Amino acid sequence: MSQKILIVDDAAFMRMMIKDILVKNGFEVVGEAADGVQAVEKYKETMPDLVTMDITMPEMDGITALKEIKKINSQAKIIMCSAMGQQAMVIDAIQAGAKDFIVKPFQADRVIEAISKTLNQ
């Protein structure tokens, strides 16, 4: 059975890139969200095995969305996606319960490595 993943990023291009990497590697993308508010709603709807979460987004940022999702499911597996130079935010995200982080621009092998490692925890 393929693992279900929710992709959250305010940039459609980034969502498309991640989705492409995931689908090619046998994962099922069950939803996409463009901001933290949508992310929380989609999480409730789809209950994915894992979420890839952008840190900086409009409406609700990734760290706030992470905390909201953790309230719904304390066992939620979330990997943060950040641009270079967001180290402080990445540390905040890990402290809030993120399992790992991947840096943009995405490298397919690093994305798959982070996701596989997190799903097997």
TrEMBL record:
Pfam families: Response_reg. PROSITE patterns: RESPONSE_REGULATORY. Transmembrane segments: none annotated. It comes from the Bacteria. Residues 4-119 form the Response regulatory domain. The keyword Cell membrane does not apply. Keywords: Phosphoprotein. The modification 4-aspartylphosphate is found at D54. PANTHER family: TWO-COMPONENT RESPONSE REGULATOR, TWO-COMPONENT RESPONSE REGULATOR ARR22. This is Response regulator.
